[in-house]
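ugh ok fine here u go
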Amino acid sequence: MNPDNQFMLTSFTLPNGVELKNRIVMAPMTNFSSNQDGTVTDAEVNYYARRSSGVSMVITACTYVTPNGKGFPGEFGGDKDEMIPSLTRLASAIKEQGAKAVLQIFHGGRQCPPDLVPNGEIVSASAVPAERGDVQGKEPRALTESEVEDIIKAFGETTRRAIEAGYDGVEIHGANGYLIQQFFSPHSNRREDRFGGSVEKRMTFPLAIVDEVQKVIKEHATPEFIVGYRFSPEEGEDPGITMGDTLKLVDTLADKGLTYLHVSLNEFFSTARRGVEDTTKARIEYLLETIGNRVPLIGVGSIYTTEDARNAFKAGIPLLAIGRGLIIEPDWVQKVAEGKEDEIVTKIDKNKQQELVIPDPLWNAIIHTPGWFPGV
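structure:
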């Protein structure tokens, strides 16, 4: 093995004492492959199992915590106790391969397609339509205060189900323009109650979810249960979240006793857009400076080769998530360990769907979305 790759294969101990066997994590990625009733399919379970033996931790695709939070066709649910057997199947498949299983929990808010939610009614922090995505221009209904409280409780209830289903942890999905981010964003949150206003007040909903999830873990799990929080650093909209806003949020989250923070980036070394003095500096640098050693940060963003990974680790992150790279090359970690890094495949092979164990809905999305995956 290339000695330069040794670091990424060393173990890492999380703040709660859980030891990860290496520093490579499978990033959460929607696969569109669950049953219509929200249960996982055999194809989905097999897809995860195929990618779970090399990495130290698998963060699943997001699961919705309430029926009106379903953001994708073929998304699996965690919104009621009847889903526990389905959730258990997935956790077991991941853990049997030797990886920690982390369930990503979420609500899509105004990004939910109307045909996937009850009565076609999409909801958000305020009645402000999205400017991007498939639902742009569709006006959501602003949630009432009691509905907001119910959703906070629902994140806790889905965490309890994850505990009962045997997951090693949950990741709160506060990124990618979904409901938690909608409350933090000045674009989507124009509220005048305690959940809106200043950047500090816009943190109220995200922080309340963290508190609720941690409360449930204290009641139903052991201290080794992992709880992560994923965030997006900036928004393109004006007004929108700036890098400066995110550093305030991250500074607060770093003191919340979380097991890790997880940034969502398309490109690992992408630079800040606004809200900071130096816009030539990588967002990851700003984040690491703000967090210090208070909580581990998982980096991510177009990592395909070992050189990509080595460069990312040189920036100072302790853990690295790989998404598309693991869909293209399920044996990424094994090939690094065996000194076969030259054999790592970095472009999707359109003739190898079966060999790669990719479910039909995800495969069709990959093949029909030019530019999403290298080789398409």
